[in-house]
Amino acid sequence: MSQQTIEVHPMPLTTPQESRVAEMSALDGEFNFAYLDERTKRMIRRALLKAVAIPGYQVPFGSREMPLPYGWGTGGIQVTASVIGPNDVLKVIDQGSDDTVNAVNIRRFFERTTAVRTTTATLEATLIQTRHRIPETPLQEGQVLIYQVPVPEPMQRLEPREAETRMLHGLAEYGLMHVKLYEDIARYGHIATTYDYPVLVNDRYIMSPSPIPKFDNPKMHMNPALQLFGAGREKRIYAVPPYTKVESLGFEDHPFEVQRWDAACALCGAEDSFLDEIVTDDAGGRMHVCSDSHYCETRQQAQAAISSPVEAP
Amino acid sequence: MSAPLLQVRDVSKRFGDQLALHSTSFDLWPGEILAVVGESGSGKTTLLNLIAARLRSDSGSVHFDTRDQGLQDVFKMTQAEQRLLARTDWGFVHQHAADGLRMDVSAGANVGERLMGLGERHYGRLRAAATHWLQRVEIDPSRIDDAPRNFSGGMRQRLQIARNLVTKPRLVFMDEPTSGLDVSVQARLLDLLRQLTRQMQLAAVIVTHDLAVARLLSQRMMVMQKGVVVEAGLTDQVLDDPQHAYTQLLVSSVLQP
């Protein structure tokens, strides 16, 4: 057999940062830094660059098998693994919370394969991988928000043929998207889509914002952070660069609106955050609490500091 | 006299060794209805798909008198232009309503889809347009929120027509619009079509194997056999005094009850 010219090993590691990568890769047995091999990461980065260059456009990529099932964030993990460096600080949230199964598992996955510092504080993090929420604390320049996306194609339900939806994107024929909203109003009297609410990015591409509540849609608009979307099963990557126009669709007489609650958070009293309704007993008892656990905790601590000043020693 | 709305010149189509359509030419004038008749496999539907730019022709040209730019070669337009034309100035009524409708969204959304595609973003106006068009095709407006899946065959076909006519096209292609419907429903649909084409000054190309449909709706007709137009002329003339042997056979084959 002739000598293969394809390198099997990762790229030669030369720069100081990369030699640290080499050190780290010994962390958990046989894995390369951040689990994926360097060639895969480069392939994904190329897809990411294209995605950033064409905001909202779905770039196909060679999604890899990951050590967790589809639907658990394989796309988001691959994107995170491709952009993470040893000096990054990672935050992982699932439905806004830092301590649910998905978030804990993914955080531990990156702790084991990269040994980067992890945090729950939104502003401390340089990378935030998220499932179904955007943190309440406004993001800043330099931060990267990575979404886990189950269904990247917003028109899939109405037009199952992928060749056709790609053509519709190509020609910017988006009447179909309003058919969906029309159906909502005809059936419920208002736009009843509450999550995965379609958006128009940079006046060109219609994009699925992943199943975030529509409450979070306005946060995507002109956000200073870079927003990356990875769909592992569907093998698609797309992006919203910082300070990009993101418009939620609507009708003139039924404009886009976010959810509102009559209640305030039972723990921190916030009235401006996304609330989860939690059933507390089987007698109908329930309470509303912030879905963003870090935001809620921060507010509780601040209130505790005001109401009970530290006693003098 | 004004210019023809549609000029078809030498379109032809081959599927491998099979000649589906021999070089065919005709003109269609505004408000005129042309019937294309012939037996199954004679190339009628191929002809329709070619001139509607749904299939790529092997040769020839189709010029359409567009609203803002005059006569344009449809085959030379970009795909985006063709598709825009297809959902504004043209309509296409399929033989099976399921091909032309979205079966799982409501009748109102089916009618409104073309308008939304053209940028209509006012729910009230969309709703009003849908109600208006359902009435015009004699569907009870109270069914506006029902999915066509729950409609009868005749209602589906009428809904399909409403969906196509909502942008006030000037040319409609119809592929066997009445086949598969029972005779009383057929008669009602034909009556409706005749009314709408008169009122809206619609030009239409109707493919059918039913000579009665041709007689009732069209001013002119073309008879096709094995991919060739064997006879063309005024409908009454062709049907009352058929010249070609095949046309004679066709006319004499009609059962008289």
The whole-angstrom Rg of chain B is: 18 Å
How far apart, in Å, are the first and last alpha carbons of chain A? 79 Å
List the quaternary state of the chains: heterodimer
Can you tell me the CATH class of the largest domain in chain B?
A: Alpha Beta
Shape of chain B: globular
Strand content range of chain B: 25-35%
Q: What's the helical proportion of residues of chain A?
A: 25-40%
Question: How many angstroms separate the termini of chain B?
Answer: 42 Å
The interface involving the most residues is between: A-B, 19 and 23 residues
Q: How do the strands line up in the largest sheet of chain B? A: 6-7-8-3-9-10
The computed structural class of chain A is alpha/beta
Average pLDDT metric of chain A: 89
- Helical run tally of chain B: 10
CATH architecture of the largest domain in chain B: 3-Layer(aba) Sandwich
β-strand percent of chain A reads: 15-25%
**Overall structural domain count of chain B:** 2
Taking strands numbered 1, 2, ... along the chain, how are they ordered across the largest sheet of chain A? Answer: 1-9-8-5-4-2-3
Number of E-type strands of chain B: 10
- How big is the Rg of chain A? 21 Å
What is the CATH superfamily classification of the largest domain in chain B?
P-loop containing nucleotide triphosphate hydrolases
Low-confidence stretches of chain A: 1-14
Describe what you observe in this structure.
The complex is a heterodimer of chains A (313) and B (257). By secondary structure, chain A is α/β, with parallel strands linked by helices. Helices cover 29% and strands 16% of the residues of chain A. Chain A is built from 8 helices and 12 strands. Chain A has helices at 16-25, 38-53, 74-83, 101-114, 162-170, 175-188, 217-220, 293-307, and strands at residues 59-60, 89-94, 117-118, 127-131, 144-148, 199-201, 205-207, 226-231, 236-240, 246-248, 275-279, 286-290. In chain A, the strands form 3 sheets. In chain A, strands 1-9-8-5-4-2-3 form a 7-stranded mixed β-sheet. In chain A, helix 2 packs across helix 3. Chain A starts with 15 loop residues before the first helix and ends in a 6-residue tail after the last helix. Chain B is α/β, with parallel strands linked by helices. Chain B folds into 2 domains: 6-89 and 170-254, Rossmann fold, CATH 3.40.50.300; 100-168. In chain B, 38% of the residues lie in helices and 26% in strands. In chain B, the strands form 2 sheets. Chain B has a 6-stranded mixed β-sheet with strand order 6-7-8-3-9-10, sandwiched between helices. Chain B has a 4-stranded antiparallel β-sheet with strand order 2-1-4-5, with helices on one face. In chain B, a hairpin with a 2-residue loop joins strand 9 and strand 10. In chain B, helix 4 (107-117) crosses helix 5 and helix 4 runs parallel beside helix 6. The longest helix of chain B is centred in the last third of the chain and has 18 residues, at 183-200. Chain B is globular. In chain B, 46% of the residues are buried. The mean pLDDT of chain B is 91. The interface between A and B is medium-sized, with 19 and 23 residues.
